[in-house]
Amino acid sequence: MAGKPGRRGWGYIRKLPSGRFQASYIGDDLRRHTAPRTFTEKMDAEAWLAQERRKLEVGTWEAPAKPVPVLDFKTYADRWVDERKLRPRTATGYRSLLRLHINPVLGDKPIATITPAMVRRWYIGLGTDHPTRNTHAYQLLHAIMSTAVEDDLVDANPVHIRGAMHTARRREPVILEPKEVAQLAGAMPNHLAVSVLLAAWCGLRWGEFSELRRKDVDVSNGTLTVARGVTYRNKEFRVHGTKSGVVRRVVMPPHILDDVRSHLENHVDDGPESLLFPAPGTNGHMVDIVYRKSFVKAARAIDRPGLRVHDLRHFAGTQAARVGGTTAEVMARLGHSTVKAAMGYQASGLERDRQIAERLSKLAEGE
Asked: Which of 64, 156, 205, 345 is the most exposed place for a label (fewest CB within 10 A)?
């Protein structure tokens, strides 16, 4: 039976992200010993292991005068984050969870000594006031320790609390009726009204519709290209790909096309790179808190004070399903499938998406 990558009959060889090879073994002192250097070729790492094994067999082996320092969780976790290709926002979130909620309890523990009992005590200590945060912290710890298993640092993942990987939703989304979407758009400032229509009827995330540009809108064909998103962190806007990594085309329901056309004529500068919803008086992105002020005010005006911007995506998914969209079609429309699957639907399902969009318009008109 094949073993894990890197595992051998004796000793262990690991290929590092740099492409070099690291060799290690368990000595007679029952400690893991790592080669003092890494190797360009795997055969060189194997040769070093063969020399060390020979010393053990003939009785000349001695533990290094300076044993390899015990690897603590904090050091390993920091390396784990560094070695992954993460979006800046994701990396920042991981480091925050580690700094505030994981390392204070587990950071100084040797990674090989972390037990299920220690994990349970840590998890209980998080309390119950922030279940979503707790789930995210637990998922991160589980992922890090899973990699530690692959790296042969621990025999089994000690992070396995039943039910902790998922949390019950504390707040149910507010699902508007179609007529309420029109009312909400009407209660927004004129230059932001269409943002509500696009978010609700096309299922766009805040970061996606706030990064929409004139070049992304094809009113003649009634389609919207969702290729990018934007995030605001540390007083800086960062444009990146969509959350799923998919560039998708969404057919706009016909009943909103006149509004979109009017918005382009009256509120969007000329030029393909012009933002559809820039910050007032600028050509740059709008900070989400500025948008939310207008949104909250509009939601109160239609007697929906608890409404959130992201609830419009729930509306989009719910209504697309109501008019007959399959699960796969709704996922493709909202950008929730994998890259491979979503791109397949974009290539073959655009006409079907057009039918869904037309039915959405009929739904909005009361048919």
From this structure: 156
